[in-house]
Write a structure and sequence with these properties.
The protein has 78 residues and is mainly alpha-helical. 77% of the residues lie in helices and 0% in strands. Helix 1 runs antiparallel to helix 2. The longest helix has 44 residues. It is elongated.
Length: 78
């Protein structure tokens, strides 16, 4: 009768792994969208677009510049 717990555990593991894979897939999609938006906006800035327009576009996509960074004009670490 040791097979029943093993089968139950297998089903739980399969469900958990599938859930984690779905979460990872959604995260990858969100990051890909963010990357595309950021690449578009950095290109616009390099081509001379007004910073307020770029900042507004970033806000619309949920990628607003943090207030502390905006006023302190800190460069991100590389």
């Amino acid at each position: 009768m040791a097979l029943a717990p093993t089968c139950a555990l297998r089903d739980v593991l399969i469900a958990w792994i599938n859930h984690r894979l779905e979460v990872i897939s959604q995260t990858q999609h969100r990051l890909a969208v963010h990357r595309t938006v950021l690449q578009e906006q950095v290109t616009r800035l390099r081509l001379g677009a007004p910073t307020d327009e770029v900042e507004l576009a970033l806000k619309r996509t949920g990628l607003a510049l943090p207030k502390a960074t905006r006023h302190g004009v800190r460069q991100p670490g590389i």
